[in-house]
């Protein structure tokens, strides 16, 4: 059962697809306070209450005990103290002896979630603008609540099958020979591969929908040759459009008035990779139709997938904020800088990026209304995703295109997937990325995954290998890294054969993983679930933070510590452990419910299959198209014994 309660004048976000009547009564479970146009929802939490949700956000699977802020932010340092990253997925699930319900705050502006941070026994959720719809979702289990919620927000995006293959990416690939070489290095060593991402360096001066004709003299031929090798190229598109006369996307955008504007009616100018840029008003349908159509410039060359980036939107500075910073610098130029002024100088420039003042400087047209950006900030990336997806559908409605975005809001899950943003090559981020996956699934984002190996900082060969072992299970399996970091394509490492063998596990399990993904997508289910969803009466399982359920039959428990040669695992029921070294080299151990220390050498990864269930395993292949979905072995622990 879902009930809706409105506050202020809710702005249509597009998150919800089922129109529900507005209740007259007070919101149940919460004490509600409206003050200075903010709305605050307060609830007492018992000692044993668990809190799940918030989709892509930092910290654990159980969100209790910290402070989160819904404010899509370009932040490449995912440390524990951060309250916001790239997405706002305002769903919470409360579960305890006296409580079981979900609540979705459909609010496109800033929200604060104090989930026992200020007071351990109290959750306080604040809508800073006070214009929102609140949905209370009740059902008899956490899984059922999520299913109800997913019915409210609509069916998840379906990527093409090839997008479940391994994808190699790196900020820096900048020419046809370089891309071909990456593919060759994989194919020569029989390292499976289905896609190569093209980061910003394929463009001319970071202009969206352009490509460097010297570096890529015949993009169409490259796409054709790659497709013959079962490889797709996946270019990046950024939200900001370079300010430049003679650049058609910019010229048309200006002529048709498609960019967001300041109060004085002039287009807002903010800087991203290309320097000064304009920002399409994706909230407008005509702008989405135009921008979504621009992707065809690349699709005409044979491109079948894209990633949308910098769409929080990220702003390095605006004309105004940089002018203010220079004014501070001019004032301090000949001063003897002390503790205050030295920091003031630094802050003046650091503060120009993603500056709150800038987000108040421009406006959108939403259903004929002019709305200041900060009131709907969290929708921007979602509507860019929507623009692209609708463009793809118009281009060829018979085909599934790959699309994943950095920024998102609930609703974007119907149009594309997400990647988990700019993580770092830190061991703690394997665990963090694992913890995000079930929460993303609760909000409908099924096609997702992290930058394997880590984006910023330098990876190591053991970290890369362990991260791939988690990546085997995430629908988006992409190795991506930042410019100037250690090169981390599998073939760069001495232990590349171990990495290749782990990749064969992905392709061996792919028929199962793909089928579980499709089941989850088509039945509003979850591909990844916290253990608490499957074993709600098992107090130990409910608090497990480093193992997650996968599909109807499995549990995963990756190793995420350096130098570890194993890990502790809790089995809530009898399970068969498959200890994989490759898709053809594995051993099977039936294990009764309980606590275990499991030995796992660096090249070994476990999969746990529930007793009485079977998981199919295909023969290894080097690309998705090459997998024989009919020639499968079944792994399982059945009454008759263990099947291999
Ligand atoms: C952003 C993206 C990252 C990309 C980089 C350059 O930081 O999150 O994935 O490599 O921009 O385009």
Per the principal axes of the C-alpha atoms, what is the gross shape?
globular
Q: What small-molecule ligands were found?
A: alpha-D-glucopyranose
State the helix count.
16
Radius of gyration: 25 Å
Q: Largest beta sheet: what is the strand line-up?
A: 26-25-23-19-14-13-12-28-27
Based on secondary structure, the structural category is: alpha+beta
Q: Separation of termini?
A: 43 Å
Main sheet properties: 9 strands, parallel
Which consecutive residue ranges, at least 5 long each, have pLDDT under 50?
none
Share of helix, binned: 25-40%
β-strand percent reads 25-35%
- Tell me how many strands there are: 39
The chain-level mean pLDDT equals 97
How does this structure look, described?
By secondary structure, the chain is α+β, with helices and mostly antiparallel strands. The strands form nine sheets. Strands 26-25-23-19-14-13-12-28-27 form a nine-stranded parallel beta sheet. The protein has a six-stranded antiparallel beta sheet with strand order 29-30-31-36-33-34. The longest helix is centred in the last third of the chain and has 27 residues, at 496-522. The mean pLDDT is 97. Residues 171, 199-200, 236, 309, 406, 421-422, 480 line the site of alpha-D-glucopyranose.
Write the layout of secondary structure elements.
Elements lengths: L1 E6 L23 E5 L2 E7 L5 E4 L12 E5 L16 E2 L2 E5 L4 E7 L4 E5 L6 E6 L4 E6 L4 H12 L12 E3 L7 H14 L5 E4 L20 H10 L3 E7 L2 E2 L5 H8 L5 E2 L7 E3 L2 E4 L6 H10 L1 H4 L5 E5 L7 E2 H14 L6 H12 L5 H4 L2 E5 L2 E4 H4 L3 H16 L6 E4 L2 E2 L7 E3 L8 H15 L5 E2 L1 E2 L8 H11 L5 E3 L16 H27 L5 E2 L1 H4 L4 H4 L5 E3 L3 E3 L9 E6 L3 E6 L5 E6 L2 E6 L5 E6 L3 E5 L13 E7 L2 E3 L1
Parallel strand pairs: 6-24, 12-13, 12-28, 13-14, 14-19, 19-23, 23-25, 25-26, 27-28
Antiparallel strand pairs: 1-11, 2-3, 3-10, 4-7, 5-9, 7-8, 8-11, 9-10, 15-18, 16-21, 17-18, 17-20, 21-22, 29-30, 30-31, 31-36, 32-35, 33-34, 33-36, 37-38, 38-39
Alpha-D-glucopyranose (GLC) binds next to loops.
């Amino acid at each position: 059962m879902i009930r809706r309660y409105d506050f202020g004048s809710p702005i249509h976000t597009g998150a919800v697809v089922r129109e529900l009547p507005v209740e007259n009564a007070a919101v149940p479970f919460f004490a509600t306070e409206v003050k200075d146009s903010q709305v605050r929802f307060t609830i007492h939490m018992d000692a044993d209450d668990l809190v799940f949700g918030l989709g892509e956000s930092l910290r654990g699977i159980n969100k209790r005990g910290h402070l989160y802020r819904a404010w899509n932010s370009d932040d490449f340092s995912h440390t524990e103290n951060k309250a916001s990253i790239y997405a706002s997925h305002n769903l919470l699930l409360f579960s305890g002896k006296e409580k079981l319900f979900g609540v979705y705050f459909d609010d496109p502006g800033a929200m604060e979630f104090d989930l026992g941070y200020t007071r351990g026994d109290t959750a306080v959720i604040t809508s800073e603008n006070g214009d929102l719809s609140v949905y209370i979702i009740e059902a008899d289990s956490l899984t059922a609540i999520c299913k109800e919620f997913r019915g409210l927000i609509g069916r998840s995006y379906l990527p093409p099958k090839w997008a479940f293959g391994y994808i190699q990416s790196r900020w820096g690939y900048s020419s046809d020979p370089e891309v071909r070489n990456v593919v060759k290095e994989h194919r020569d060593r029989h390292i499976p591969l289905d896609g190569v991402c093209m980061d910003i360096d394929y463009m001319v001066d970071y202009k969206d929908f352009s490509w460097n004709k010297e570096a890529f003299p015949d993009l169409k031929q490259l796409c054709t040759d790659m497709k013959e090798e079962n490889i797709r190229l996946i270019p990046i598109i950024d939200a900001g459009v370079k300010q430049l006369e003679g650049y058609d996307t910019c010229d048309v955008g200006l002529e048709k008035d498609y960019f967001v504007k300041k109060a004085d009616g002039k287009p807002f100018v903010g800087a991203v990779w290309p320097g000064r840029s304009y920002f399409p008003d994706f909230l407008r349908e005509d702008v989405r139709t135009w921008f979504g159509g621009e992707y065809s410039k690349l699709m005409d060359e044979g491109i079948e997938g894209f990633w949308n980036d910098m769409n929080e939107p990220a702003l390095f500075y605006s004309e105004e904020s940089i002018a203010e910073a220079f004014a501070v610098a001019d004032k301090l130029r000949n001063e003897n800088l002390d503790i205050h002024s030295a920091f003031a100088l630094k802050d003046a420039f650091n503060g120009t990026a993603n500056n709150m003042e800038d987000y108040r400087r421009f406006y959108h047209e939403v259903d004929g209304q002019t709305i200041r950006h900060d009131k709907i900030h969290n929708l921007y990336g979602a509507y860019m995703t929507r623009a692209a997806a609708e463009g793809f559908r118009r281009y060829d409605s018979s085909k599934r295109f790959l699309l994943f975005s950095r920024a998102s809001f609930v609703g974007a899950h119907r149009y594309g997937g997400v990647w988990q943003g700019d993580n770092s090559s830190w061991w703690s981020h394997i665990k963090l990325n694992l913890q995000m996956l079930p929460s993303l699934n609760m909000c409908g984002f099924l096609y997702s995954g992290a930058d394997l190996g880590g984006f910023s900082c330098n990876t190591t060969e053991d970290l890369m290998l362990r991260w791939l072992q988690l990546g085997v299970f995430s629908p988006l399996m992409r190795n991506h890294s930042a410019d100037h970091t250690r090169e981390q394509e599998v073939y760069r490492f001495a232990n590349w054969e171990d990495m290749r063998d782990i990749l064969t596990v992905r392709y061996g399990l792919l028929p199962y993983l793909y089928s579980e993904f499709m089941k989850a997508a088509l039945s509003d289910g979850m591909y990844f679930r916290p253990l608490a969803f499957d074993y709600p009466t098992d107090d130990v399982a409910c608090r497990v933070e480093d193992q997650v359920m996968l599909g109807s039959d499995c549990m995963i428990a990756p190793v995420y510590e350096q130098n570890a040669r194993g890990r502790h695992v809790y089995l809530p029921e009898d399970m068969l452990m498959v200890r994989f070294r490759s898709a053809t080299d594995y051993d099977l151990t039936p294990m009764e419910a309980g606590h275990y220390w499991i030995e796992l050498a660096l090249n070994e990864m476990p999969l746990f299959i529930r007793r009485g269930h079977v998981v199919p395993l295909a023969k290894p292949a080097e690309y998705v198209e090459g997998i024989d979905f009919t020639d499968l072995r079944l792994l399982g622990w059945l009454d008759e014994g263990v099947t291999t």
